[in-house]
Amino acid sequence: MAAREKSFREVAYSRRSIRDFLPTEVPEELINEIIADAVTSASWSNTRPYRIAVATGDVRDRISRALKDNGTAIVRMRSRRPGTRLKGLLTALRLLRSDFRIPVKYPEDLRRRQVELGKALYGHLGIERGDSEGRDREFVRNMEFFGAPVALFFFVRRGMGVYSALDAGHLMQNLMLAAKARGLDTCAQGFLAFWSEPIRREFEIPKGYKLLCGMSLGYAARSHRNEFVPPLPQAEDIILRRASER
Predict the structure, then answer these.
(1) What is the rounded distance in angstroms from the CA atom of residue 8 to the CA atom of residue 35?
(2) What are residue 189's DSSP bridge partners?
(3) Closest by alpha carbon to 151, among 117, 118, 114, 198?
(4) Where are the beta strands (DSSP E) in 114-181?
(5) pTM to 2 decimal places
(6) Residue 191: which of 14, 63, 23, 16 has the closest Cα?
(7) pLDDT per residue as tens digits for the range 143-201
(8) Which of 67, 70, 131, 224 has the fewest Cβ atoms nearer than 10 Å?
(9) Strands 209-218, 185-189: parallel, antiparallel or unpaired by DSSP?
(10) What distance in Å separates the CA atoms of residue 33 and residue 72, rounded to the nearest whole number?
């Protein structure tokens, strides 16, 4: 195996979603270097229909508090007390203002992987199936960016259909690998797109751009939490067979 190929494999295979970060600040120059690497990604007709909001310091903290306040309604929705559950539902319906419809029910052929991941992750964290409080704590940690000092928010241009999301996916993958190559880690988080208003209050978002996803960025803590390795499909699981092989 060539040294260059080995180097890429080491970076690619070591990238994981980190859920416990150190509070160590990431210099602005380093963040800019990582984003500069990210924008070398492929883009449909070179349109690059995306923008990134970088939240650090007080801005990061204000967004986190706002997201946690809203997230409390989701936690109440899962309460065993009917009154609390109803109050949480009504609050959530009023607050949920995601720019895209976020899937809450996965197609059956994909749900198996979702369930496998949930069992593996919660099992690793020692959270039993009936431990609703433990699961709620994990949910809220999303809104705290798992302790990361940097929160990134990815906006895509309306009018490009799925292709703006495709380009943003290329960008995000490059960004995660660029961070890993520099000794930093990331966690891409769909939860951070549940409410776009707290981010829109802090940044000048161009007209026509919608919040797609968020990401935490920072230095990983040495902890049991970060030793989790998710199950991965094999290449043969996703490569389509030719019709003649049936």
Answers:
(1) 18
(2) 214
(3) 198
(4) 150-157
(5) 0.89
(6) 63
(7) 999 999 999 999 999 999 899 999 999 999 999 999 999 999 999 999 898 889 999 99
(8) 224
(9) antiparallel
(10) 36
Q: Please provide residue 49's backbone torsions phi and psi, each rounded to the nearest 5 degrees.
A: -85, 55
Token couple for 77: 């929705």
Give the Cα separation of 56 and 79 in Å (integer): 33
Question: CB–CB of 211/98 below 8 Å?
Answer: yes
What is the distance between the alpha carbons of residues 211 and 233, in angstroms, rounded to a whole number? 29
N- to C-terminal Cα distance for the chain? 34
pLDDT classification of 90: cutoffs 50, 70, 90: low
Q: Which two tokens stand for residue 218?
A: 């920072």
Say if residues 57 and 184 touch (Cβ distance below 8 Å).
no
**How many Cα atoms sit within 13 Å of 106 on the Cβ side?**
8
List the one residue out of 60, 21, 33, 10 whose CA is nearest residue 179: 33
Distance CA 40, CA 237 (A): 29
Q: How far is CA 161 from CA 27, 39, 164, in A?
A: 35, 20, 6
How many angstroms separate the CA atoms of 211 and 151, rounded?
13
In the chain the domains, ranked by start, together with CATH numbers, are: 16-225 (3.40.109.10)
